[in-house]
Structure formats: structure tokens, C-alpha cells
Amino acid sequence: PLSAVLLGSNVAGQADDLIAGGADQVYVVDTPELASFLADSYTKTLAALVQRHKPEIFIASATSTGRTIMPLLYVDAETGLTADCTELTIEKAERLLLQTRPAIGGNVMADIRTPLGRPQMCTVRPRSKKPLPVDRSRTGKVFRESVDKRDLSSVMKLLEFLPEKNVGAPLQDAEIIVSGGKGMKNAKNFAMLEELARLLGGSVGASRTAVDLNWAPYSSQVGLSGKSVTPKLYIACGISGAVQHLAGMSASDTVIAINTDPEAPIFRVADLAIVGDVLEVVPALIGRLKS
Each residue's pLDDT tens digit in the chain (291 positions)? Predict the structure, then answer.
């Protein structure tokens, strides 16, 4: 069976959502000590569940939380860990999980197996696959789990929570994304992308180059080293289309690309290609939308 783990405080009611999303059973640890995410207490709690139930495979999302917990957890379990997978396949004969992830700067895709260690562990890039349709008619089992109070203790303390500052919805939830790259020339010109995103009801993204140049915050970075997104509309402004960037946005429903180079790789995945200066095209789009 496919099992899910739910940790936190006052979260038991969310078990039905996990079952509707595809889980056959849900293990719940619902306690006030887990109200805030603290890496050591969450890791010790998961380690206790892994030791108790001995899963064959353990998968987590490659979010900041998953990337924090899983390296600690695999050391405790004395197994292996494959990070940032984009594809998973079960090899039934050997009962092995084939884990596929980008390697060598995203230029090749590597297939990785864990033949000896158990559980087989990996993290999967968010939005690298479309979720299953939610089915509220599904039924499953919910198990309330208890753990030793010592596992719930933490040497850490949450002092403050600072949410990301984005234009529009969080990038991975946005239905429309306007992304800028090196072709935007400077940080000041990103203001026009913010204006276009507001007019469209979308969010602003950026290429790794734009982030490295401090034109945009890391929270807006799209690609292998940033976020994978699947919006209904993705507008790439001045982005050439490096392999690493394409891997993070090529699953978008519709892609519009604006670039002066007619041979830019971004045009290979674009539904609409605009060969032109983004600093002329975007203001024209803004003017048209305002009128």
C-alpha cells in the first residue's frame, strides 16, 4: 500500500485529503510539540516511524523542509539518498526504485538505484509531475501514532517566521508567471515584469542568471536550482533557455517567449515565439492591457 505521513499540531483532519489524493493509509503524529517545524524533532519522529514500520521506499518532496529532513534521516537509517528526482520507476523484478535526476549541471539525466540500503530514499522536485485527480470517494486507513517524548524534544527554538515577498501568488501555485532573464539588462527593468504580472494576475519569476546578478530574489528562481513550475501561462522575457531553466518550466500549459535571438533554445518549447527586444515588447503589452 501507498502510505503517507502527517506530522504537526491539529493536523489529523488533513488525513482525508491525503487519501483523496492517492494515499491508501496515513500515519499521523498530531501533537503540540510539532506545531513548528524544527529539524531535529521532525527527523527523530520520522526515524521512529521508519524503524517501526520498515518501509521499502521513503519519498519526500524536495522543498526546503524535505531537503532539510531527508539528509538527516538517511544518515540515521544508514541507507542512501537521491536528491531532486524528476522521474521515478519501480523495477518490479528486483523490487528496486529507479531514481532519475539531472546530473553534471543538468546536461545529462542519471538513473540511480539503491540495491543494498533500506528504505530506498529520495526527494522529488515539486511540480515535476501532474498530481493525481482528487477523488473524495476513496477510502483508506488512518493510524494515530505515538512517539517517545524524547524524540519530540528539540534544541532549537523558532524565533520568527518571515514569509517570502512575491508579486502575486507563490511561484509554484501561480497560474500565470512572467519570468525575466539576462535580456532584461538590469534590475530596474524587472519593474516592468512586475507591472505586467499584476495586470495579468500572475507572479514574477526569474532565470538563474538574473538571480545571480541580484536582479531578482532567489525565491523567484525557476529551474533545476530553483523551483519547478507548471502554470497555465509562462511568459519568458529575455531568457535564452538553458537546459537547467527549461527543466523547471517546460511542463507549463502555454509558453510565450520573447527574445532577440531567433535561434534561442527557449523557442523550442514555446507555443508562441516573439522575436524582438523584450524592452520594447513588454511595454507594448502593458500599454495594450491598460487600454
Answer: 899 999 999 998 999 999 999 999 999 999 999 998 999 999 999 999 999 999 999 999 988 899 999 999 999 888 999 998 988 999 988 889 999 987 776 667 889 999 988 999 999 988 777 788 999 999 999 999 998 888 888 888 888 887 766 656 788 889 999 999 999 999 999 999 999 999 999 999 999 999 999 999 998 999 877 888 889 999 999 999 998 899 889 889 999 999 999 999 999 999 999 999 999 999 999 999 998
* CA distances from residue 171 to 20, 89, 205, 206, 280 in whole angstroms, order as listed: 25, 28, 7, 10, 25
Contact 27, 5 (CB under 8 A): yes
The three three-digit cell numbers of residue 167, written as one number: 508579486
Phi and psi, residue 122, nearest 5°: -160, 160
Domains of the chain: 3-152 (3.40.50.620), 171-290 (3.40.50.1220)
Rounded to the nearest 5 percent, the helix, strand and coil shares of the chain are 30, 25, 40
Beta-bridge partners for 25:
3, 141
CA 50-124-209 angle, to 5 degrees, is: 140
Distances (CA, A) of 225 to 90, 166, 178: 26, 18, 18
- In contact, 220 and 195? CB cutoff 8 Å: no
Among positive and negative, which fits the CA dihedral 243, 248, 251, 253? negative
The SS3 of residue 42 is helix
CA-angle at 63, arms to 47 and 209, nearest 5°: 145
